[in-house]
Amino acid sequence: MEGLRWRTFVAVLGVAASIVWVLPNLVNMDKMSWWPSKQKLNYGLDIQGGLHLVMGVDVDGVVRESTTRLIASMKSEMTKETVPFTDVKSEKPETGAVEIVTANAADKAKVEKFLTDKYSTVLQVVGTTDTGVTARYFDSYLNDYKNRVIQQSIETIRNRIDEFGVAEPSISQQGANRILIQLPGMADAEKAKQLINTTAKLDFMIVSNELSSQQLQVMVAEAEKAGNFNMENTKYSDYVTRVNEALKGKLPEKTVVYFEKAPNVTTIDAGAIPYLLRTDTDLGGGALDDAFVGYDQYGSPQVSLQFNTAGAAKFADLTGNNVGKQMAIVLDKIVKSAPSVRDRISGGSAVITLGGGRDRNGMMDEAKMISTSLRAGALPASLEQLEERRVGPTLGADAIDKAKLGSYVGAAIIVIFMMLYYKSMGVVASFALGLNILGIFALLTTFGATLTLPGIAGIALTVGFAVDANVLINERIREELRLGHSIKVAVQEGYHRAMSAIIDANVTTAATAVVLLYFGTGPVRGFAVTLLIGIVTSMFANVFVSKVIVDTLVNKFNFKKLSV
After folding, report:
1. Which pTM does this prediction carry?
2. Bridge-partner residues for 562, per DSSP?
3. CA distance 48 to 25
4. What 3-state DSSP class applies to 389?
5. Which of 555, 557, 556 is nearest to 488 (CA)?
6. 3-state SS class at 490
7. How wide is the angle at C-alpha 231 spanned by C-alphas 226 and 236, nearest 5°?
8. Residue 321 — φ and ψ, nearest 5°?
9. Which end of the chain is more exposed for a tag (fewer CB within 10 A), N or C?
């Protein structure tokens, strides 16, 4: 009897906990501060609607940038090791191909030896001439690099969405250079898109004084006139690209033109100040440790930056080597501020000032967006939105209504069958089945899982093998009663002998669910999660709780007979 009391206590505690977790889904608990849990069940995109985006990843742009860095690195190393060369260039940097030009055949042999010694694991020689060597990335290296860019982009987007507070987003690779993003129940779609689309590529660049601001403004105006474009009718990133292409050959080497939003204007296309910036500083957002909203001496919002150890050393060297010059803080090719470097900064800290022209709330929103984007990580490649669908909840509501109807009809048929066929034990089994479903929704809620239509299918399957467990138990009890055993012995032996078959069935089902969970994505994982939770709840409700109920009736209330 002492054991029965403990099992009864555990059963009651489990049922009470399930009710506590499930009730916030049915009743508004916001005003009940004393209620221990207010967490609600999350619904997937197919049920409650949300935002569906397909983003294109500029993988070629990343390879192009990598090739440019490779060329700079090779020039530096060959100069340091006195390997003679005339030039290192690339006609198609997006393919990862570089050409090393030499003065004669003897120099070419030294270049080939240099490539073998330094870059044999990365580059392969694909062609030679009397005075030149052409090399390119190995296909395996290039494919792996591109895949890493996609995966890093996915992780960065996931980090940003997590900071935005979206429950259970679905972010996955689609094809070679696309990312599928599904945000169920996304209320503020525009803000989510802004956060995802913001590349948040941070660079610290030294302002070049080789051209004056007036000269630069004239050159930009001439480029706009010649190309028949301007900032107002062109996307900013495209505008910057077109300006620099138009000025190619007219600007000093290793420089680029970016723009700062003029004071007292709301958008950059309403007024922009050009800056000539050096591209060889090599200090960006990857060196950051943290980014957060701070305030200047006047209480205006700004973004405070904290570098990691390596970044702090680079920042100290950069400021120390450029005392008296301006250092531009560039975010997504927009100059946010360009303070003068008065001394070497060795503390590993910097700030992005946001300028005026807006109210405090507008500045605070921008500071939060910038800090969140930087803290979540800079995207390794720029993104282009290829598809957007705002999925309304109407289809999901219709589907879930039909799923509910199917569940109700199926449950009713099961309950009627169990009660007619197994009589009293059928009533116990039906009650346990209700507790099983209650437990599933309780665990889904407390784990913060997302219920999708495949998840509902998993619940339906759970109901099936939960009833199967009761059928095994009841049939074993029937066999024991036919052998002339008392109801106490029949119940004891019936549960004991059926347990091996029940455990075997649940273990094999769980193994399948684990495989689906590990290898599956999206809806498949949702199905697997509900299946695994269903196995746990069915063992608790349909085996443990039902035995507690039957033992209580037989041992405590001295039922001499239970119809089975």
Report:
1. 0.53
2. none
3. 14
4. strand
5. 555
6. helix
7. 120
8. -85, -5
9. N
